[in-house]
Amino acid sequence: MNPELALNRKGVTLIELLVGLVISAIIVAGIYRVFVAQTRAYTVQDQVVDVQQNIRSAMELMLRDIRMAGYKSNINPVTLVTAIFPGDNAIVRSDAVKVEYQQAGNRNTVVYYRDANSQLIRQLYINGNLNSTDTVLQNLVPAPNAPNGLQFTYGVDGIVGLDTSQDGGMDDQNGDGVINDSDWVSAAAVNGGNLNIIAIRVSLSAGPPPGNPDTVNIVPRNLVSTVNLRNLCLIKNN
Question: DSSP secondary structure string, 127-151?
Fold first, then answer.
């Protein structure tokens, strides 16, 4: 046995220990920062996915009901002049629609509107009696094509009763030879002009729930869909 090795009992000095601790702390701090950044990124992506899924589900539900408008006979497919729902003081609204159709022998009236809490509400009336009220989508936010987060515009085909002005297609409002964004008519214009509605365009915009600083910069998701009224044209209810 080498006597020099047996007598060499030198350990780690205090300076070496401190240096090791500092290096370890730097490594742990770096790992923690990466973990926090990844957690925040996951939260943001999770909120984006939720918003996209929720807005698509709400849109599909609305389009399904709108496609049923006027199904079967003796049904008023839409009301633009009277209040949208009981207690509503608005005469003509761009952020609400009411459609009617017959199902299982009952007269179903479905109302979609934006409430004061920026929520998309769906109400179902059966034979004139309120059956259910559901929150379809929360956190509606303004968008260029939907100032209130929800907007309905209408494609029209001439004036009701004037067959010569109706050709089954959507009218070119500005006469430029193509159907584009400027050819969709507001609810107020449809009401005032007594126009024959053949299509509805729905603009829906929503964002993540407020209060989370990690998601405050998420750009709201905006979805625009068009539905042709396949059962019959929606006619202003006088």
Answer: TTEEEEEEEEE--B--BTTBTTSEE
Neighbours of 181 (CB within 10 A): 9
pLDDT of residue 6: 56
φ/ψ of 25, rounded to 5, equals: -65, -40
Condensed to tens digits (0 to 9), the pLDDT of residues 137-157 reads: 999 988 888 888 999 888 888
Q: Which residue do the tokens 């599909």 mark?
A: 60
Tell me how crowded residue 203 is: count the other CB atoms within 10 A of its CB. Answer: 23
Burial annotation 219-235 (CB, 10 A radius, 16+ → b, else e)? ebbbbbeebebeeebbb
- Residue 231: helix, strand or coil by DSSP? coil
pLDDT for the residue numbered 186: 84
Residues 148, 114: Cα–Cα separation, whole Å? 8
Q: Which residues of 47-56 are buried (b: 16+ CB within 10 A; e: fewer)?
A: bbeebeebbe
pLDDT in tens, 30-55: 888 888 877 777 777 777 778 888 99
Cα–Cα distances in Å, from 39 out to 30, 46, 208, 217, 220? 14, 10, 17, 16, 21
Alpha carbon distance 95, 92 (integer Å)? 9
d(CA 198, CA 69): 11
Pair 89, 114: CB distance under 8 Å: no
